[in-house]
Amino acid sequence: MNKFHSFQRNISAVELPKEIDYPHNYTPHKIAQIASEELQEYLQIQSDFIYNFGLNSSEGVGKMFGVLVVQNKRKELGYIAAFSGKLAEKTIYNYFVPPVFDTLDSGNFYITGEKRLNELTQQIEILSSNGYYLELERSYNNQNKLHEQLLETEQINIKKRRKLRKQQNAIDNQKNINEEFYLKEYEIYLNDKIASIKTEYFKKQKEITTLKQKRTQLSFEIQQKLFQNYQFLNNNYDEANLLHLFKDSTQNIPAGAGDCCAPKLFQYAYINQLTPIALAEFWWGKPLTSAIRKHKQYYPACTGKCKPILKHMLQGLPVGTNPLLATLNQTNTLNILYEDEYLLALNKPYNILSVAGKEIEHSIEYLVKKNYPKATGPLIVHRLDMSTSGILLVAKRKDIHKELQKQFINKTIQKRYVALLEEVLTKEQGTIDLPLRVDLEDRPKQMVCYNFGKKALTRWEKISIENNCTRVYFYPITGRTHQLRVHSAHPIGLNSPIIGDDLYGNKAKRLCLHAEQIKFIHPITTKEIVVHSPPPF
Q1: What is the pLDDT of residues 272-331, one digit of tens each?
Q2: Which residues touch 466 (CB under 8 Å, ≥6 apart)?
C-alpha cells in the first residue's frame, strides 16, 4: 500500500481532532496543514511527472491537491494524497491515490465508447463538409428562397388586383376563385422545379441526421453507464453511485463529479481500511483567470460536484457542523438609522441574512415583518451579503418600494462601502471591470466570465495604509452578487482579498466590508436623503 505516506516531521505534540471538519466550510487542522506542507515539498522536487503549474512562466495553470490524514490498522499515523481530475493527461501515479473510476483505463467501456463517438463525429464532419453535399445545400436553399419570393410576389399582385376591384365596386367572385386556383397551381409548378434537388438534398441530410441521433444516443448510454460505475463507499461500507447520489438534486450531474480530491481520498481510505482523521485541499500553481485560486491557499470542497457525494461518504464518521450556522447573528433588534412613515434605513449587522433563505428564516426581512406587521410590499429594497454589514433600505409600502427600486435600476442611488484589504495597494484609485456569473460547480461563489458573465463595474479609492493592510472606499456602479469581494480578490482586479473573506480569501473574525453611506431621493418629499454608518472595524 505505497499510497500511505508516513510523516517526515515530528507530530507527537500535535493533538488530533475528534471529528472530520465540515468539508464545505473549514480551516484545515494543524495535522492536515503539516501533511499539506510535506506534499508541497514533494511537488517542488518530484520527477514523477512533467506538468507546467505556471509558477515560473506566463504559460501553464495550477491544480487542486488534497491530503487526508489517516490511521492504519497498526495505529500508525500518516496521510494519503490526491489531485483533482487528471495530471499531465494521466490519472495514475505512485504517490497519489487512484481515481474512483479510471476513465483512462484502456480496458473499460468508456475508452471504447469514446472511440466510437469520435468515429461518428468524423463521419458527420466528412458528410457535412463534402463538396457535393454543400453544393446541393447551396443550390436548394437558393432556389427555394427564390421560389418563395416569386410566390410572395404573386400573392401581393393578387391582393392588389382584388383591392382595386373592390374600390371600383367591381367584385368578381369567379376571378377570385380563378386566382386562388392559379396560386395553388403556381406553387405546385415551383415545387416541381426543385423536387429532384430537394429529394437528393434531404436524402443526404437524413444520413447526417441519423448519424447525429446515433451519436446522441450513444453519448447518453456511455454517460449513464459512467454514472453507474462511479461507486462511492462511506464509513459504514454502504455503496452508492452518482445516479443515486444526485437523484434529488435540482442540477444535472456535473462533468467531473467524483474526480475531485476529497472523494478520491475517502474512497481509498475506506477500501484500504484507513481511518480518516483530517482533510485539507490547496491550490498549487498559477491562479485561474475565472474562479479565484491562489498558490498554496486552502479551499473547502466544492458544493456543485462534491456536496451530494461527501454527504454520503462521510456517513459513519464524526463530522463537525457547518461553522457558518454557529456564527449566524441571532439579534432580534433593528438598529434604525433613519425612519419616517414611508421607509427606514437600517444598520445591518454582519453574519445575518438580508432576506430569509431556504434553510434559514432568521433575517432582517423576518425582523422587519415582526416589528412592522402593517407594512406592505416586498419591504427589502436591496440586499447585502450575509457577511457584509451596513446600511439597508426598507420600504413600508409597495409603491415606495417600487420607486426606490427604480432609482437602483437607473443608478441614481449612490452607495459607498468601506473595506479593509489584506495587501498594501500602491495605486490611489481606479475602476475594475470584470463580468461575473455564478460558479455552477461551487455555489454561491461567483467567477469572472467574459462569455456569459453580467457586466460588473466598481470604482475604488485608497483611504489609508494600516498595519500592512489597505483601507479603501468602494463605489459599486453595478450590483452583482459578491461583486466587491471578487473584484478585490481577483488577480486582474485588486489582487487583494478583503480581510475575513472566507469565500475568496482567508477567514478572520469577520468580513471587513461595510456599507457606510447611501444617498437617494425620497419618493414622496423628493429631497435628497443621506444616511451614514461608520464602519465597526
Answers
A1: 999 999 999 999 999 988 989 999 999 999 999 999 999 999 999 999 999 888 888 888
A2: 420
Residue 437 phi/psi, 5-degree rounding, is: -145, 165
Nearest by Cα to 384 from 406, 353, 419: 353
Distance CA 261, CA 85 (A): 8
Q: Residue 504: which of 514, 517, 515, 491 has the closest Cα? A: 491
Place of cell 448510454: 221
> Model pTM?
0.84
Listed as own residue / partner, the contacts of 307-311 with beta carbons closer than 8 Å and 24 or more positions apart are: 307/24, 308/245, 308/246, 308/249, 309/232, 309/242, 309/245, 309/257, 309/258, 309/263, 310/23, 310/24, 310/262, 310/263, 310/266, 311/245
C-alpha cell, 81: 494524497
**First CA to last CA across the chain, in angstroms?**
51
Q: How many CB atoms lie within 10 A of CB 362?
A: 16
The Cα 451–Cα 526 span in angstroms is 40
Predicted pLDDT of residue 1: 58
282's CB contacts (< 8 A; 6+ apart) are 36, 40, 64, 65, 66, 296, 297, 298, 299
The three cell numbers locating residue 1: 500500500
Q: Are 393 and 493 in contact (CB under 8 A)?
A: no
Name the grid cell of 36. Answer: 499539506
Domain boundaries, the chain: 5-101+230-324, 127-219, 327-532
3-state SS assignment for residue 246: coil
Catalytic residues: 385
Cα–Cα distances in angstroms (integers) from residue 173 to residues 15, 164, 165, 167, 184, in the given order: 101, 14, 11, 15, 17
Can you list the positions of beta strands (E) in 295-413? 336-339, 343-348, 389-395
Q: Quick one: cell of 54? A: 505556471
Decide: 82 and 8 in contact? Cβ < 8 Å: no
Helix (H) or strand (E) holding 79: strand 77-83
- The Cα–Cα gap between 58 and 73 comes to 46
Provide DSSP, 104-154: T-TTSHHHHHHHHHHHHHHHHHHHHT-HHHHHHHHHHHHHHHHHHHHHHHH
Cβ pair 348, 390 in contact under 8 A? yes
Which CATH number describes the domain made up of 327-532? Answer: 3.30.2350.10
| pLDDT, tens only, 295-308 | 999 999 999 999 99
- pLDDT score, position 128: 95
Tens digits of per-residue pLDDT, 493-537?
999 999 999 999 998 999 999 999 999 999 999 999 999 999 999
Contact 280, 416 (CB under 8 A): no
Neighbour count for residue 341 (Cβ, 10 Å): 9
| Residues of the chain with confidence (pLDDT) below 70 | 1
The kind and range of the H/E element at 518 are: strand 513-521
DSSP-derived pairing of the beta strands 77-83 and 63-71: antiparallel
